[in-house]
């Protein structure tokens, strides 16, 4: 862990927004490049993705850690994956247990893509109370940026010849970006030509939605499974202006605390449930409505 006193990536507003504007304009190219770059083993992460699985939609064990976000809009819950992202889960859990996220804000909302939360001020600026510890980014072949994925905001740090990706206390919550028919057809064609991408991954994005071009770019460490109506409401929040992406009305995490899945069960949210297909279809339809751009 290290302390970084400089302003962190997401609050360099213009650069951050410009990046996403570019990636959405060129979404199909970026999706194909990033996914194939990761899955063929040519990335710097040196992970073999050929046997990757999507574990986010498997019902957790009763003792699995769950974080509960109580907000002024309502409550949603996410299960954590300490076996896949041990260092960040330990860091995050420590912050939660200290009450760090109580009273923090959702400071940026990009409709159909993400929202960022856990900031001490509503405009996302750092304060003397902001924890600027950085954790080396963790990438798991079994965790992907599906809709509802809980991520640590991740950025590059260091000099030209010693750069590394690090995560910090800011939280990035993944929404859903819908490909156009033309983009989907091109992606399907590319996927059909590759033997390196497990069907579990492509099927999961088709079924649950998400943002494919976030793949292996952020530390994914959790998955929202309960309170998706509240989650969707936050994802679709009106912003004050297109430059800052700050919500027009303040959205605050009034209380954030740790629990277990056994104390917060919602079997219908997971693939093994008899009702999961209905729940999944409802979630994707909701995402489709909120991500028209």
Task: Describe the overall structure.
This protein has 293 residues and is α+β, with helices and mostly antiparallel strands. It contains seven helices and ten strands. It has an eight-stranded antiparallel β-barrel. The longest helix has 15 residues. The C terminus is likely disordered.
Topology (elements, then pairings):
Layout: E1 2-3, H1 13-25, H2 27-39, E2 65-71, E3 74-80, H3 86-97, E4 104-110, E5 114-119, E6 133-136, E7 149-157, E8 164-174, H4 181-192, H5 199-208, E9 219-226, H6 228-235, E10 251-260, H7 276-290
Antiparallel strand pairs: 1-6, 2-3, 2-10, 3-9, 4-5, 4-10, 5-8, 6-8, 7-8, 7-9
Shape: globular
How many beta-strand elements?
A: 10
Poorly predicted regions are 25-34, 36-43, 273-284, 289-293
**Helix and strand composition category:** alpha+beta
Write down the overall mean pLDDT: 81
Report the β-strand fraction as a percent range. Answer: 15-25%
Q: How far apart are the first and last residues' alpha carbons, in Å?
A: 38 Å
Please describe the structure with a list of short key phrases separated by commas or semicolons.
293 residues; alpha+beta; 8-stranded antiparallel β-barrel; 7 helices; 10 strands; 28% helix; 24% strand; globular; disordered C terminus
């Amino acid at each position: 862990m290290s302390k970084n006193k400089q302003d962190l990536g997401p609050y360099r507003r213009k650069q951050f927004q410009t990046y996403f504007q570019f990636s959405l304009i060129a979404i199909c190219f970026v999706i194909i490049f990033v996914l194939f770059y990761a899955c063929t083993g040519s990335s710097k992460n040196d992970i073999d993705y050929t046997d990757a699985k999507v574990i986010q939609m498997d019902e957790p064990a009763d003792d699995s850690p769950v974080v509960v976000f109580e907000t002024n809009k309502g409550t949603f819950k996410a299960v954590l994956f300490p076996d896949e992202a041990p260092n960040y889960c330990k860091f995050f859990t420590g912050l939660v247990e200290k009450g760090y996220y109580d009273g923090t804000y959702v400071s940026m909302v990009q409709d159909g893509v993400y929202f960022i939360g856990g900031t001490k001020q509503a405009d996302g600026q750092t304060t003397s109370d902001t924890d600027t510890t950085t954790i080396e980014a963790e990438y798991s072949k079994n965790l992907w940026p599906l809709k509802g994925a809980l991520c640590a905001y991740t950025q590059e740090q260091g000099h030209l010849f010693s750069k590394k990706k690090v995560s910090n206390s800011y939280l990035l919550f993944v929404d859903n970006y819908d490909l156009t028919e033309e983009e989907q057809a091109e992606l399907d064609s590319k996927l059909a030509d590759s033997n390196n991408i497990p069907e579990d991954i492509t099927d999961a994005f088709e079924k649950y939605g998400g943002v494919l071009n976030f793949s292996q770019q952020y530390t994914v460490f959790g998955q929202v499974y309960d309170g998706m109506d509240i989650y969707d409401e936050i994802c679709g929040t009106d912003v004050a202006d297109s430059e800052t992406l700050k919500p027009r009305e303040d959205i605050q995490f009034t209380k954030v605390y740790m629990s277990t899945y056994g104390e917060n069960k919602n079997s219908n949210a997971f693939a093994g449930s008899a009702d999961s297909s209905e729940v999944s279809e409802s979630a994707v339809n909701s995402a489709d409505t909120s991500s028209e751009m």
